[in-house]
Design brief:
The protein is α/β, with parallel strands linked by helices and about 290 residues long. It has helices spanning about 15-25, 35-45, 60-65, 85-95, 130-145, 165-170, 190-205, 220-230, 250-255, 265-270, 280-290; strands at about 5-10, 30-35, 50, 70-75, 100-105, 115-120, 150-155, 160, 180, 190, 210-215, 240, 260.
């Protein structure tokens, strides 16, 4: 039996937490990054590291991918498409050791449901260019492995948070805002629950499976900031109307859609029990851990 080896295209926040859980169990982990400094950092952590970016494919894809049993793609599409598929689709299709593959997408592919609940079988109606690219990337990944029998999974992630990237952190560093847009709700997911969902799917590989990865409590973002302030014993920042909030174009784009995302499939099909079923549990745990 081949020793398990995870190869990650784009070892960011979520993929990094997932990779660390596997390394703790003795897995070999390899990943791509975009700079020599990051490469050195990953290698110091015991991760095989390879440079990759649009216009800079893997120098020796065969050697880099050799022995890969599990593949995770966390590189977002750009204006030209999916850079991993564009530069390495053939190499990945030729992998004969692959038992599982996952693509980290976003619940943004559903577009604006006006706050209504949406499940994995819903029509995809992305509202922005970034979300439209995600839809195309999802199709590309499903099509790549459709004829090879490799269980390709799509994970549509809600807003990701956790230690280092939570409302507690933004309150502490003074960047937190309470923005009021009546009727607006967001879905969230703790990074540890993403890792747990990925591991659960590896134990139950299914061809073409699609999973929403979100917690149980959608709600407005200003409530999260308010709760973080309460935990820290601080006065919350003022509630500012959306049209006066002076948000960056990227931040403002997240307010274009309002939806509640169903998560029952990961519970029913994968047996996932969320460690942090709502933002309160996640923030409380972070503070209790001294993070």
């Amino acid at each position: 039996m081949t020793d398990p080896r995870l190869f990650v295209f784009g070892l960011g926040y979520s993929a990094g937490v997932f990779a660390d859980t596997l390394r703790a169990d003795g897995w070999r982990v390899a990943a791509t990054c975009r700079s020599e400094a990051k490469k050195a950092e990953l290698e110091a952590r015991g991760i095989e590291a390879f440079l990759f970016d649009r216009g800079r494919p893997l120098a020796d894809a065969g050697a880099a991918l050799a022995g890969t049993t599990h593949l995770l793609v966390s590189v977002p599409p750009d204006a030209k498409g999916d850079p991993v598929l564009d530069q390495h689709a053939g190499d990945l299709a030729d992998l004969r050791t692959l038992d599982w593959a996952g693509y980290l997408s976003t619940t943004g592919v559903y577009g604006d449901t006006k706050g209504e609940w949406v499940g994995e079988a819903a029509w995809l109606r992305p509202t922005g260019e970034r979300q439209k690219r995600r839809v195309e990337a999802e199709r590309g990944w499903l099509n790549l492995y459709r004829h090879y029998g490799v269980p390709m999974h799509l994970f549509r992630l809600a807003g990701i948070y956790g230690p280092g990237r939570s409302a507690i952190d933004s309150v502490r560093d003074g960047t937190a805002k309470r923005v009021d847009k009546p009727g607006q709700v967001f879905c969230r997911i703790h990074v540890a629950d993403i890792a747990a969902t990925l591991r659960a799917s590896m134990a139950r590989p299914t061809l073409g499976a699609v999973y929403n990865v979100a917690d149980d409590l959608p709600g407005p973002s200003h409530e999260v900031v308010e709760y973080a302030c309460r935990l820290l014993g601080l006065e919350p920042p003022p509630l500012v109307p959306f049209d006066q909030a002076d948000l960056s174009p990227m931040a403002a784009s997240f307010y274009a859609d309002s939806r509640r995302v169903k998560n029952d499939r990961i519970k029913r099909q994968l047996g996932v029990t969320l460690a942090y079923p709502d933002f309160r549990a996640g923030l409380e745990a972070q503070l209790a851990a001294g993070l």
